[in-house]
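Hi V.,

You were right to ask for the full record rather than a summary. Here it is.
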Amino acid sequence: MKAHPIIDYPYRWLPGIVAALLLAVAQTVLLRRYAGADWLPAVIDGVTTVIWFMALAYLAWFVVGTVSMFKTNAIITITGILLWLAGCFMVYDILTRIAGIAYIPFAPTIPFRLLFGIPAWLAIALWYHLQVDDEENVEEDTFVVPEEQAPATLSQEEECLDRITVKDGSHIHTIKVEELLYIQACGDYTTLVTPSGEYIKEQTMKYFETHLPAGNFVRIHRSTIVNVTQISRVELFGKETYQLSLKNGVKLRVSLSGYRQLKKLLGI
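Predicted structure:
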């Protein structure tokens, strides 16, 4: 699952907070000036409903970030707005019925809520899609290591690994290359996944990409190298996104550039 573009980048926190405050002010002013609400309930309404709105927008990323189909996005938008209106009504009900604060009827406020709620939601969804596209572009730029950039001082025999040694405490494991299912990036380390377990190796993805047998291993994503003999099928999973299934049932994400490399290797 992708990290949220706000949480993953702290420098975006301040603009996000400012945007939320502006939405709360807009909601409060609309309720006060055009719906005739008193200032106190309008402020409470504006702040709490915008917090609810931002929470829903935050959760929407985890769908938009993995599924890019138009119909799905339309459903997300409609569902998000309806859930937000339901939260607004809950705030209204708490103010009037539980807190006993005099307030205007809820129905006349719906047009004003939608007036800024729908554009704000669409703007957030558009920004999410721009983030997804940017990530795909980065993947395409950094995914393939051109053949001419491989170390010129190594012979073909030296470049190709047939086994990998992994030290685990006082134990030393020897993994045959053909036993590898896939390799996952983990910072400056990599996780070697085999049928018998997972092993951490202090080597980079670039190292394995240039030293594993090119006919059996392909980098399908900037964080994943897979053994093609273990692939069961590859299918479309959203807009320009693919999903690969291994014979053991594990599913791995495939970037657009990784899909091209996979097709080239398999001769499809």
